[in-house]
Specification:
The chain is an alpha+beta fold. Helices cover about 20% and strands about 35% of the residues. It contains nine helices and 20 strands. Helix 2 crosses helix 8.
């Protein structure tokens, strides 16, 4: 697979990062201790490089109607400034990717503007699918992934830290920003107030922000955020802690919980699918049939949370057992640093999916007891 390097690669090298390939990108796996990075995000704040993610602008008079057709959600109902979690599916209802859509103010010509952010390994596939589906719509699909960096600051001190880089007169832009919303904010970087898109979104289960910035300005922004934080207040964090954080928060990962072979209903994402919206959308007929057949409710398998009753953790692809019989498969699992016991997400037969159900995970020939619990495993105190 081709190796890509983010605009922050040299910053990570200076910090002593260990790297790993992720979606074709060389990304920091951890800087020192993944456990320390995990706890830092839960207790203070962590800074992440998410520049491997994709960014696709969809602009035009038909932009809202087009995204209603291309994605499963009712994007046209979004208010300007809001963000929405959605899915892009194929005609068979398989999940091509999960993504976030940000609705931005119309341009000077009155054209609607949306920023679509797909996952790293799927960015080119999603951009190509959107371009292909745009035929017949007055819309422009512009993949700016290669020119855009994304920096996340996540944790209970995230707002406090970022406010130090925003003019006092504009603090309300940050403090008043709701979850799943975005706004242009002037950041004081290199002495200038550069306006950047700031979103109150994240993948950790904590309060936090994601900042979109041109590649040329990414290193200066990263350095400014790190420099403005007090000692011990902000910790660079890699993919290892990001994975343990999102697992505790019950957030699906494409390639683990989500795939072309799966569907939104078995993944617990039925509410994301707007079958009642006017007009057709790609995969609508197949998804309606799956829902009618009881996918994820009365038939097939369903994504659940599993809490370990012992000390050993289940891992991806380990069989899930009931009375010695295979009734499911783990998609993600590891010891929970925050909770102190093993957690896992798994697809299990719907008849064994109720919270409180006792199940086992086959840990390489030895059964380990687990219990079905409601997701997420971890919820931050508000």
């Amino acid at each position: 697979m081709t190796e890509n390097y983010t605009a922050l690669y040299e910053e990570h090298k200076k910090l002593g990062a260990s790297f790993t390939d992720f979606g074709g990108w060389q990304m920091p796996l951890k800087y020192s201790s993944e456990l320390a990075e995990h706890h830092a995000v839960r207790k203070a704040a962590g800074i992440f490089d998410l520049s491997h993610m994709g960014e696709v602008w969809v602009t035009g008079l038909d932009a809202a109607a087009f995204l209603d057709y291309a994605l499963v959600g009712k994007i046209s109902a979004m208010a300007v400034g809001k963000a929405k979690y959605s899915l892009i599916c194929n005609e068979d209802g398989g999940i091509i990717d999960d993504l976030i859509v940000y609705r931005r103010p119309a341009d000077s010509e009155g054209h609607n503007r949306f920023l679509v952010v797909p996952n790293a390994g799927n960015a080119k596939v999603v951009a190509a699918a959107l371009a292909q589906r745009s035929a017949g719509f007055e819309v422009v699909v512009d993949d700016v992934s290669a020119a855009t960096s994304l920096i996340a600051v996540q944790g209970p001190k995230a707002e406090e830290i970022l406010l130090r880089l925003v003019p006092a007169a504009r603090h309300e832009l940050v403090t008043g920003l709701k979850y799943y919303a975005a706004v242009e904010v002037p950041f004081l970087v290199a002495g200038a107030g550069q306006e950047l898109l700031l979103a109150r979104t994240g993948y950790t289960g904590e309060d936090g922000f994601e900042i979109f910035v041109d590649n040329d300005d990414a290193a200066a922004l990263w350095q400014a955020i790190v420099a403005i934080a007090d000692e011990g207040e902000l910790t660079p964090a890699g993919l290892a802690s990001r994975d343990s954080l999102r697992l505790e928060a019950g957030m699906p990962l494409y390639g683990n919980e989500l795939s072309l072979e799966g569907d939104p209903f078995t993944a617990g994402l039925g509410p994301v699918v707007a079958l009642s919206k006017e007009g057709d959308f790609v995969g609508k007929a197949a998804l309606a049939a799956k829902k009618e057949a009881g996918a994820g409710s009365t038939s097939g398998r369903k994504l659940v949370g599993l809490k370990g009753l012992g000390r050993r953790a289940g891992r991806g692809h380990y069989p899930v057992l009931k009375d010695g019989n295979v009734v499911g498969e783990v998609t993600s699992g590891q010891p929970s640093p925050s909770l102190g016991y093993p957690v896992a997400m798994a697809y299990v037969d719907v008849e064994h999916s109720e919270p409180g159900t006792a199940l086992d995970i086959d840990l390489r020939g030895k059964s380990e007891p687990f219990e079905v619990v409601a997701l997420p495993f971890y919820k931050r105190a508000k």
